[in-house]
Amino acid sequence: MNSLKILVIYGGGSIMPKDLRLTDLVCLPWPCRYWYPDPGLMENTRRFANRFSDYRGALLPGQSAEAVLPAIVAKIDKILKKIQVDISDCDGGLYDGPAGVAYMLYHVSECPLFSEQRDVYLKTAKQIIDVSVRYADAEPDQNMRAAFLLGGAGIYAVAAMIYKSLGLADFVKPLTKFRNLWEVCAPINFLECGSDELFVGRAGYLCAALVLKQKLGIEVRQTPRDDQIKSICQAIIESGKQYARRKRKPFPLMYSYYGTEYLGAAHGLSSVLQMLLSYQDVLSGAEKDLVWQSVDFLMTQEQNCNWPAELGAIIERENELVHWCHGAPGVAYLFAKAYLINKKPQYLDTCIRSGELVWQKGLLKKGPGICHGVAGSAYVFLLLYRLTGNSKYLYRAQRQAIISPLSHCIYSLFEGLSGTVCFLVDLLQPDQSEFPLFSVFV
Q1: Which of 219, 236, 354, 356 is most exposed, with minimal Cβ within 10 Å?
Q2: Which residues span the membrane (predicted)?
Q3: What residues are designated binding site for Zn(2+)?
């Protein structure tokens, strides 16, 4: 009989066997009716319906650090036994390459609850990132070296963070390599496919710079006369203005990636605007107005608490995307950033509606990751907990379960278990929780 690997993070409740505990990895028969006794719980091809009871004034029992920490350590051990650390296996950058596993180890080592494992995790992270840096150095395409999640820029940023945590003066070397990449992505049309999105474009460079500012307290900028960040922001705005004029858009800034006008966090307008808001101190008054007009325009594109993957599309319920990469779980971060800046309630209300959608839509079938898996959706609840302090959202984060089909990148950061580990660690420190490499609190 065929089987499906299912990773249950938070068990209990009426729809799971009582003996399934936190982070138990079990193998159950397929189809899933053997796990969900009622076939009606299978809502559609993308997700299982959420039949958990909602918050009733108490968090789930048995979620203390003492209970959870050993299970997380076991999952990390499993990842490290499987991960390949060879230069021929370093493709994929932070997204689904070994560099993302190195970031996960760094993230875990930063949590005081893992002080006993800190040295081992950081040394292992260094071994992995050293090979990834050599891979990035050898990349012949300078545009790919400038990519955040898929290329060298992200690898160099994470290398600097790991080296600094180890107390190594060598952290300056990858930091310098990262700084020098701004010249690659500064030209308006440096990428034919689209120069401004998060994975390979300028928004990604800004995002990596933001992470370095947060983790190391180091600004990527040089001097007021040679402000790399300002140059990148101005290039993004000018690119968006040119595209909007050329396509006769009724709003000031728009972008495309491979000819598609995406709206979501992965390749679209929301993450571009989020990065511009994160550096609004370098923008002129007129440039800020363009950004805020575009933020408010994107709010008008909401359809039943969600956003279509691309501009002008009508959401079809059966094919609705409720992922970090496309849909409300990723767009929510833009409005969270907007709310943190100006405290207008409509932005927080939009985030809350996004969270309600995620709770209603239930459990994604695509895997455990943070890009289009359950952990990525669950991070919305940790975001809302930090924004509101309402324990309901922490409860909802606890209730998330991961359904994990085996795949070639099962241990990666964005599509696999490394992202899940980051989520589990953040559940232990919800007041400091953040979606990996995508902060709104800086």
Answers
A1: 219
A2: none
A3: 325, 371-372
